[in-house]
Amino acid sequence: MSNSKPKRWHANAGAVAPWIVPVLLIVTWQAASQLGWLSGRVLPAPLAVVEAAWTLAASGELWRHVWVSTWRAVVGLAVGGGLGLVLGLLTGTFRIAATLLDSTLQMVRNIPTLALIPLVILWFGIDETAKLFLVALGVFFPVYLNTYHGIRAVDPGLVEMARSYGLSGWRLYREVILPGALPSILVGVRFSLGLMWVILIVAETISAQSGIGYMTMNAREFLQTDVVLVGILLYALLGKLADVLSRALERFWLRWHPGYQAA
Amino acid sequence: MHTHPVEQAALAYLDAALGTPAARATARPVAHHPRPPGGVALRVEQVVKRYNGREVLHGIDLNAAPGEFVAIVGRSGCGKSTLLRLVAGLEATDGGAVTIDAADARPGRGGREDIRVMFQDARLLPWKRVLGNVALGLPRARRADAASVLAQVGLAERAGEWPARLSGGQRQRVALARALVHHPRLLLLDEPLGALDALTRIEMQALIEALWRRLGFTALLVTHDVSEAIALADRVVLIEDGRITLDQPVALARPRQRGSAAFAQLEAAVLDRVMRKGGSADFLTSQQLFELPALSPDPSPATSV
């Protein structure tokens, strides 16, 4: 009884503590802007950013850009991640496939995706295909590599046991090999989600007629620093959202794993 | 060439799916029909096994009658686990034959339906709940059996648990249930209790013995624990350097009293024989063993446990 109070205080402090620094920063920032220490051209006040976001949202422009960017991210992820998964399963399962494909893929992996932008613009122009191609290429490798290693790292003892208990073919794959590789595959997916936004931001700032990147570049030309900040914050928010989603997937799919079970 | 087990499985499956009609026939899932209870007759003849040119088993001969419990003891690295893996069809022999009920046991493409192995590490699938692990490989229609076998090993109330939450002894009990749900007629036990503490081990030995007596399967137990071998087996076979050097019947009445004089005497004799490795004393000691007095029905009640 006597120690329940300090414990609750501890729990509350744990929930509040991470927010102290950001709140202090924003308050200082707002104060600095209002006192005239910060020029609105360099850094607009937080309230001005909120106002800009509100205006953009009210006009519907914000949602159009967010929708276009999200669509590009999701389609790019589906194509690149899907290919990475399939090829990773193939090379992980068959040595011959690994011998044929792996060294080539490792070579391509060492080319920074963004270094391909000039070539991609020559190939696809500046329309949707170029951006989807870049995102797909960027997310391909983390998924591919982690799937490959996940399959290779499946406990041989479990495969042997399952085969001697009569499992083979698709059933063996579904009940033993895929679940065994899943923790590793999900690590790849989380890496991909981070890369996905980075590549999309660059691709959209270089060449686009819509999307969050286009919105910020456009605002830059008109010196609308508040809109630029709205764009940057949107990326942060969407990135965080993707991370939360992938963590939720991990918690669900890996609920058998001692590392993911609630203590 | 050494292939990765995942690749091995995939290739075997493709082989069966695309290959010869004979291969296709063996790959087809076996129909589940009630099998006569009891055990198979196991015959191992002149079996040879080599790894990288080094011979680890030199012409092993071993028979087990239907329903017999045979224990194989020996020091680590003597080849006893290899012999069990050959009988299980997990690996192919390099010479000789393993016959089970007069049928040639081919190295497992999917494994024979009436042979089950219990491994030293329980090898439960961590992503399946306890009941799902027991029902592994069972057709949907027989999933109810899994629950009843789980109850037989005393874990009915843990059916919905993840394997990671179980103790070592409980995991082995789940593994035992998973093996028994297929009504095996030959159960191969590869040091299944080696990693357990002494008390859990004795408990598990009693459970295995009780189920074996009720179900009547043939059992082959590999262990380094001589006391365990004598507690469970009808015959104790010693393997040294890839050869059988002792085949000792255990004529004690069941259930066996660990504290009894006859038990202790037999255990000491076999242990002594195991420890006296190599040298010309081999025949002499086995001779001495056979001359041990009063091995048949236990005259004195247990003095301790």
Summarize the structure.
The complex is a heterodimer of chains A (263) and B (305). By secondary structure, chain A is mainly α. Chain A has one domain: MetI-like (MetI-like fold, Orthogonal Bundle).
Question: Can you put this structure into words, describing what you see?
Answer:
The complex is a heterodimer of chains A (263) and B (305). With 263 residues, chain A is mainly alpha-helical. Chain A has one domain: MetI-like fold. Chain A is 81% helix and 0% strand. Chain A contains 10 helices and no strands. In chain A, helix 2 packs across helix 10, helix 5 packs across helix 6 and helix 8 runs antiparallel to helix 10. Chain B has 305 residues and is of the alpha/beta class. In chain B, a hairpin with a 2-residue loop joins strand 9 and strand 10. In chain B, helix 6 packs parallel to helix 7 and helix 9 runs antiparallel to helix 10. The chains are: A mainly alpha (263), B alpha/beta (305). The interface between A and B is large, with 34 and 41 residues.
